[in-house]
Amino acid sequence: MSPYQMVNSNQSLEEDLPTGYNQKEISRYYRYRPWLVIWRAIKIIWFFGSFFLLLQWDRWTNQPVATSQRRATQLKNILTSLGPTFIKVGQALSTRPDLIRRDFLDELIKLQDDLPPFDSHTAFNIIESQLGCTIDQVYRELSPNPVAAASLGQVYRGVLYSGEEVAVKVQRPNLRPLLSLDLCLMRWGAGWLGPWLPLNLGHDLTLIVDEFGTKLFEEIDYVNEAKNADKFAENFKDDPEVKVPLIYHEYSRGAVLTLEWINGFKLTDLDAVRAAGLDPDDLIRIGVTSGLRQLLEHGFFHADPHPGNLFATPDGRMAYIDFGMMDQLDENTKETLASAVVQLINRDYQALAKDFVNLGFLTPDIDINPIIPALEKVLGQAIGESVADFNFKTITDEFSELMYEYPFRVPAKFALIIRSLITQEGLALSLNSQFKIVEVSYPYVSRRLLTGESPQLRKRLLEVLIQDGKFQWQRLENMIAIARADQAFDLLPTAQLGLQYLMSEEGQYLRDQLLRALTEDERLHTEEVQRIWSLIQEDLKPQKIFGLAVSAFRDFSSESVAALLPTAIAFR
């Protein structure tokens, strides 16, 4: 009996459980129905226990290679039979070619969009009951069978009477009882097993389960998904490299979603991608940059970017098609994340430790001084001699040592962020095994800090560039050099923003630091002038510099210009 059939045998479960994720109500509900919990736990233990025994038997009999394909298929079938919660785990693993063997990976990839569908008659009944009319009244055409089946629903291809091609997403029936039962068991297991794990996650592991449960329940609300898609589309409306499907709200409800049909190629189908004349490295750049924009610019990010949710369009754009699992970051978190990336690359571990406190990985009352040498030792090894050696897999492996020895914790919200970043990196690795995420991400972060659109972001830039009362020219040189690697970076508007900031009241502190850096005992440091001049002359011609100065002088008062004169004299 499948988990879906098991739930269908008790229809009252759907009515009695909370509509949203509420761990107290769910726990209270199953406390009075222990037979459901016991049967489900026995089934999970039996499946995985048998599987690991078979793996061990293969090792004992020296035939792991001969049976590897069979075991990979068995694992995929186990995850499928256990239902959506475990399918989600398999989907996450399917994006990690550096963690999972190739034979297992090939099977787990099938969990992204190659799952057993449920009966179309049931699906059509759901559509009609949700929309309050017959299918023929809404869709001119609708495929008799689903074109794709996923963990939480399946998709039909249709055509509206207005002529638009659409995808009709229909939710699997009675999902809430099954998800609630699995989450109840996961939370119970987290509470019991957390203190015994080799990482210092004990008291936060249940919070991570709660965060996952909250997002999973949001994912089965298609009205919420439609709102997420609209917000995501608004954020990327000016990005020509990102495609977001149009949502047809009049034909969408809680369990039915009608959206624009996207013609494209799976990112893992390299043959099709190359046959279409698309460059996988360009797709990697678009995917990573758009992911960073979600985290650091908009704060509204896709928490489940596996290959089943991303497509390459024939014109080279990246198309997102699933917006069920999303999350929102506040402004301070966005800025601190950007700062932490730069501190990590600059190997400023004291500032990085402070960022960890601000992000919640360390409590404010912790003495960070003993932690700083450990950060330098572990993360310094992870980064290597070059920033190009950096990747999240290495960082998470090395960081586990710190979490065992020091009071680090993973804030619940960051469980989704880490999952999103690792999934994106894993997807990029499947396109290019030599991919290094920093080669794309750090130019973006540098450009983001250099442009400094908000006072808070400018403050972060100052924290990076000024240390112990001294202006760090080398860091500015590194940031500008790396930012130039981003084709979207234009130094002229960045320089204009910098000059405007320098002449403003807010820029008083930076003006003082520049003067101290350029002069000492009223003596001009010509080598420092040459260094800063070399930073801009590659991109800015003399006429551009003159126009920039005229524009800045026109926009500011005589008092502001006078405040800049000492610095101008230093450059004379």
Structure description:
There is one protein chain. The chain has 572 residues and is α+β, with helices and mostly antiparallel strands. It has 27 helices and 15 strands. The radius of gyration is 27 Å and the shape is globular. Mean pLDDT is 76; it is low at 4-11, 199-203, 540-546 and 548-572.
Entry keywords:
572 residues, 27 helices, globular, alpha+beta, 4-stranded mixed sheet, 15 strands, 5-stranded antiparallel sheet
What is the straight-line distance between the termini?
A: 83 Å
Shape annotation? globular
| Main sheet characteristics | 5 strands, antiparallel
Oligomer: single chain
Number of contiguous helices: 27
Q: How large a portion of the residues is in β-strands, by DSSP E?
A: 5-15%
Query: Would you tell me the overall average pLDDT?
Result: 76
Number of strands: 15
State the share of residues found in helices, binned by percent.
Answer: 55-70%
Low-confidence stretches: 4-11, 199-203, 540-546, 548-572
Class by SSE composition: alpha+beta
Question: Radius of gyration, rounded?
Answer: 27 Å
Helices and strands, with pairings:
Layout: H1 3-8, H2 12-16, H3 23-31, H4 34-60, H5 64-82, H6 84-93, H7 102-108, H8 120-131, H9 135-138, E1 139-142, E2 148-149, E3 153-160, E4 165-171, H10 175-193, H11 202-219, H12 222-235, E5 242-243, E6 256-260, E7 265-266, H13 270-275, H14 280-298, E8 300-302, E9 310-312, E10 318-320, E11 326-328, H15 331-345, H16 349-359, H17 371-383, H18 392-405, H19 412-431, H20 438-451, H21 455-465, E12 466-467, E13 470-471, H22 473-483, H23 491-503, H24 508-518, E14 519-520, E15 523-524, H25 526-537, H26 542-555, H27 558-571
Parallel strand pairs: 5-10
Antiparallel strand pairs: 1-3, 2-3, 3-4, 4-6, 7-9, 8-11, 9-10, 12-13, 14-15
Helix pairs in contact: 3-10, 4-5, 4-10, 5-6, 5-7, 10-11, 11-19, 14-15, 14-19, 14-20, 15-16, 15-20, 15-21, 17-18, 20-21, 20-22, 22-25, 23-26, 24-27
